[in-house]
Specification:
The chain is an alpha/beta fold and 105 residues long. It has one domain: Rhodanese-like domain (Oxidized Rhodanese, domain 1). The protein has helices at 21-26, 61-72, 83-89, and strands at residues 3-5, 14-17, 33-34, 53-56, 77-81. It has a 5-stranded parallel β-sheet. Helix 1 (21-26) links the parallel strand 2 and strand 3. It is globular and about 40 Å long. 33% of the residues are buried. This is Sulfurtransferase. InterPro entries: GlpE_sulfurtransferase (IPR050229), Rhodanese-like_dom (IPR001763), Rhodanese-like_dom_sf (IPR036873). It holds the Pfam family Rhodanese.
């Protein structure tokens, strides 16, 4: 399965966050799209084809499952190793929807 470190995700990448809603609201990458892993099969039409899809979760487990499945069904998916914990530790930008400073839930 293809993987990259959080700091190697291109600025213009399609970043797909597959965490749950409460995790997303606590802190996520500003340009990320959000589809919880459990909804991905039903919402696959929202994920663009023809360009790499960088998949992220909290630490990398759920995104690894999503990456494997996406590649199996014809997308070009790349797992973000270490997930949002690695993203935050790398000092990459995050936003919150809670009115509080962003954090990795």
């Amino acid at each position: 399965m293809p993987e990259v470190e959080a700091k190697a995700v291109p600025d213009d990448a399609y970043l797909l966050d597959v965490r749950e809603v409460d995790e997303w609201r606590a802190g996520h990458a500003p340009a990320a799209a959000h589809i919880p892993l459990g909804d991905l099969q039903n919402r696959i039409g929202e994920v663009p084809q023809g360009r790499p899809v960088y998949v992220i979760c909290r630490v990398g487990g759920r995104s690894a499952h999503a990456t494997t499945w996406l590649n199996h069904v014809g997308w070009e998916a790349i797992n973000v190793d270490g997930g949002m914990q690695s993203w935050a530790a790398s000092g990459l930008p995050m936003v919150s929807e809670t009115g509080q400073p962003p954090y990795v839930a």
